[in-house]
Amino acid sequence: MEGTYKIINDIEQIQLLRKLIGWNPLTKQQWEIMLKNSSWMYSVWEKDSLLGMGRAVSDGRYCMIYDVIVHKDYQGKGIGTKIIKSLIKKAKKGIRIGIFIENKEFLIKFYESQGFQPINGMQLIKE
């Protein structure tokens, strides 16, 4: 498994990941706009297969992490942690990092294990 900050051009692979974990599909046009306006992305691949991804949008003071997705067959193997840590690493010191998640206990526990705290959402201030 290899991680990279490259732009993901294969929207079909993103759509497949979303479908595999039960997320609603977005149109190709929606993804093109979202990817174009992302500050950075991190993805994990096995050969030519997308195993996981996440993206961040930052204005230099605040950063929001979106669309952290891991293929259902690869969950629990550290890929989500690798994605989150890689996205956080790209943020500047002192930046506030937030993430919106579903109110599911396993997600809350995962993001707390990554340093996020529930404060009207989850946020992490990078020291």
Main attributes of the structure:
127 residues; alpha+beta; Aminopeptidase; 7 strands
Describe this structure in words.
- By secondary structure, this protein is an alpha+beta fold.
- The protein has a single domain (2-125), classed as Aminopeptidase, CATH 3.40.630.30.
- The chain is 31% helix and 31% strand.
- The protein has four helices and seven strands; from the N terminus they run βααβββαβαββ.
- Strands 1-2-3-4-5-7-6 form a seven-stranded mixed sheet.
- Strand 3 (49-58) and strand 4 (62-70) form a beta hairpin.
- It is globular and about 35 Å long.
- The termini are far apart.
- The mean pLDDT is 87.
Outline the secondary-structure elements.
Blueprint: E1 2-4, H1 11-20, H2 28-36, E2 40-46, E3 49-58, E4 62-70, H3 79-90, E5 96-99, H4 105-113, E6 117-118, E7 122-125
